[in-house]
Amino acid sequence: MQVLRLIRIQRIVWRYGLDQIAGDSLRLYSLTRLMRLGRTFEAPRGARLRCALEELGPIFVKFGQMLSTRRDLLPADVADELALLQDRVPPFDSELAIGQIQTSLGKHPDELFASFERTPVASASIAQVHLAMLHDGREVAVKVLRPNMRQAIERDLALLRTLAGLIEALWADGKRLRPREVVAEFDKYLHDELDLVREAANASQLRRNFRGSNLLRVPEMYWDYCTSSVIVMERMHGIPISRIDELRAAGIDLKKLSRDGVEIFFTQVLSHGFFHADMHPGNIYVGTREHNDGADFNRYIALDFGIVGTLTDSDKNYLAQNFLAFFRRDYKSVARLHIESGWVPADTREDELEQAIRVCCEPIFDKPLAQISFGQVLLRLFQTSRRFNVEVQPQLVLLQKTLLNVEGLGRELDPELDLWATAQPLLERWMKERVGWPGFKERLRQEAPQFAQILPQLPRLVHRALSEYGQGDQGQALEGLRAELRAARRLMLAGVILLAALCAISGALLVRAMGS
After folding, report:
1. CB 160 within 8 Å of CB 189
2. Do 267 and 215 touch, CB atoms closer than 8 A?
3. Contact (Cβ atoms closer than 8 angstroms) between residue 187 and residue 56
4. What distance in Å separates the CA atoms of residue 398 and residue 318, rounded to the nearest whole number?
5. Average pLDDT, stretch 291-306?
6. How do the residues of the chain divide into helix, strand and coil, expressed in percent and rounded to 5?
7. CB 230 within 8 A of CB 144
8. CA 292 centroid distance within chain
9. Distance of CA 368 to CAs 78, 358, 428, Å?
10. End-to-end CA, the chain
């Protein structure tokens, strides 16, 4: 089977001239001329690569989608074409889906559900979706993993690993592109998507984060019907966000919708540190009065939670500061932040990096804000990053992809969307909450349990140090005593500061209560 697969791949490579593209990239010009053999291609290289991946099948399509997010590794024309890859996959036989459900949940769908639609409503490379109704009348969507996906993935991943090794060995720039790390990243990305329980957990977290929000709705997961290969969720009614004419006819405020999309993105990134990382048009719906009794009118509905991104507090802090510095054209701060965060080598000259960023961004920022494309800014920055050996941050790759999706959706809804003006107040408010009085109170609240646990231990620590001083080597014990006392002083100082802060907070609350 592996030999047949290799033969089929070779035929597709030959048909689309990918061998010539590889020869040009590897600077094997004489070999490229030999391989040409009279073949000519009118389509550009990026389009040919995209078509070849689509013909190779779902796993290669997924790989191309993931690779399109790594614009630090690819020429712009190739990355743009790979971004057009879609999961246009025919549905698999409904009987196979029924068998999968019966195996996973222990009963036939006709027993599990009051009704079950045999014809799927959606089909992608990993799974397909059927509509059903529970016995209590709740409408649900049943997502079923494609049969034999794990075997197909392992087979094609083995080929990709071999190809990555060849690229690294033969291409002069191969090591910088880190092809084996890219394939390893893709391996993790795919196996995460294969576990539908993980997707259900992601959805539950996102739903909890936006509980009570009037911006985003996330379907409820019905855990009694969820396994690694089948999940059952609340059915969502709405209009796909790509159908602009239908949205307009339904009375949706497109300008507000575009601004809400930006707010949803930055809320997920900065407030939650947990974001939906696959926000292409097929996964976003908009609620209407007709389907939701007005409750979700003009409200986003998110679907498909197989890919999410997470950020640490440090990531969020650096991102917010970088965004604000870009807004203010403070390129010196951008350069300093990149060096301090370790994104560039420590010996990088700050003035040289600042100048390179200025050259990259100034031509764009001279345009009216509404005409600025964040995608263009990213492309220019990636070109600059190669010169300074900027380390690609894995946790930020999905963020970059998601922001480009958000900008594209927003501009499609409202061509005059001013992404910067919409995002700046959100960033400034978050920074104020983080470094201002509210942030200080929140950090005190988080640290209070730890202080409460440590402070009572101080007498015991001092007693232990004195006992060791009396029993052991006096010089060594004396130094230990000094260290213990220094630690005790720090703890006592922290305790005093904590108590003072708590008193100040209590006093402020008391004054406010008396004033009201």
Report:
1. no
2. yes
3. no
4. 16
5. 75
6. 65, 10, 25
7. yes
8. 29
9. 28, 17, 21
10. 78
122: β partners: 129
- The per-residue DSSP string of 389-417 comes to TPPP-HHHHHHHHHHHHHHHHHHHH-TT-
Phi, psi dihedral angles at 496 (to 5 degrees): -65, -45
Tell me the β-bridge partners of 441: none
What is residue 93's predicted lDDT score, i.e. its pLDDT? Answer: 93
pLDDT at residue 475 in the model: 56
Residue 310 structure tokens: 């997470």
CB atoms within 10 A of CB 387: 10
pLDDT of 427 higher than 50? yes
Q: State how far the alpha carbon of 72 is from the alpha carbons of 117, 163, 200, 385, in Å.
A: 44, 20, 32, 8
CA distance 56 to 175: 26
pLDDT tens sequence across 178-234: 778 778 877 887 788 889 999 999 999 999 999 988 899 999 999 999 999 999 999
Strand partners, 301: 217, 285
pLDDT tens-digit readout, 234-284:
999 999 988 899 999 988 999 899 889 888 988 998 889 899 988 777 789
User: Per-residue b/e over 98-123, b at no fewer than 16 CB within 10 Å?
Assistant: bebbbebbeeebeebbeebeeebebb
- What's the CA gap between 141 and 120, in Å, rounded? 10
Name the token pair of 145: 């993993």
Q: Is 418 a catalytic residue?
A: no
Residue 295 DSSP symbol: T
Rg of the chain (C-alpha set):
28
**Please, are residues 265 and 406 in contact by the beta-carbon 8 Å criterion?**
yes
- With vertex at residue 98, the alpha carbon angle to CA 92 and CA 103, rounded to the nearest 5 degrees, is 120
pLDDT, tens only, 52-81: 888 887 778 877 877 776 665 677 778 778
Catalytic member of 72, 156, 260, 278:
278
Q: Please, are residues 376 and 420 in contact by the beta-carbon 8 Å criterion? A: no
With a CB cutoff of 8 Å and minimum separation 6, the contacts of 148 are none
Which residue, 321, 333, 375, 393, is CA-closest to 358?
A: 333
Residues 6+ apart with CB under 8 A from 157: 59, 183, 186, 187, 190
Structure confidence at residue 232 (pLDDT) = 97
Which two three-digit tokens encode residue 437?
A: 């009085």
DSSP labels, 18-47: HHHHHHHHTT-HHHHHHHHTT----S-HHH
> Rounded to an integer, what distance in angstroms lies between the CA atom of residue 212 and that of residue 127?
30
- C-alpha span between 302 and 283 (Å, rounded): 6
Query: Quick one: what percent of the chain has pLDDT higher than 70?
Result: 67
CA 140 to chain centre: 27
Cα 135 to Cα 340: distance, rounded to the nearest angstrom: 58
Question: pTM here?
Answer: 0.72
